[in-house]
Predict the structure.
Amino acid sequence: MNLALDAKELAMTAYNGAVAFSPAFIPATKPYYSWYYDKLEPWLKEFTIEVDGEQFKPYNSQLPFEMAEAAQSKGYDVPENDQEIKELFGYGWWKHAPEIAEKLLLKNGFTRDSNGKWLLPDGTPWEFQIISSANPAHPSFKWAFPMAQQWKEFGIDAEARPSEQSGTIIPMGNYEVSGDWPVTEPFGSDPDMYRSFNNYKSSYYRPSGERAVGHVSRWYDEELDEVISKMEKMDYSDPGIIDLCIEATKIIIEEMP
């Protein structure tokens, strides 16, 4: 799903380019650059997924510089220093690789009809709504429409559906796609990301139809459980918390809930 999206075009459409990308589920704000992104980027650049027996690197480290070019083309002043460009636009995102996205879907039983529209593995049309806040200033509202449009161009019948009832629909699991945060904002006062990751604890899992008490995706992972348990026993000021948070981040990137 990520590889079917053009992140640069999304950012230009939703926010006129005023976006700092955060591919590691950690906010792209300055303290987190030195605490996390400088350490994570070498791993991100080498991160691979297997597609038809071959290794593919999905991370696009050049996106900040592509964003800088796009902003300049609109007449905005953009820093010339590489580090300042990263501070402005973040540390990259996943590549726009629709051909790879197609291979992954075909591998998992999806097919296309004669018009190029995607069908689910059971042969029915692939269609869904993106539930978001009804507030036009809310990020979930701003992202829902360009994402729906790009997925539609890719062949999925996606539709943005802002709703004043999103605060009820989403926690109850009555949706397929939502604009909710992937993790909770950690506030930035220190490097401890426990507040961000603990929503994924398996003990919080509830089946759809029951109100979620953890993350609304209802995804959990036993390996992540172990890391979260270690975080709970560690002081927020302990230097080792950074290593644990990086470990948790890598699990979530690999699983992509």
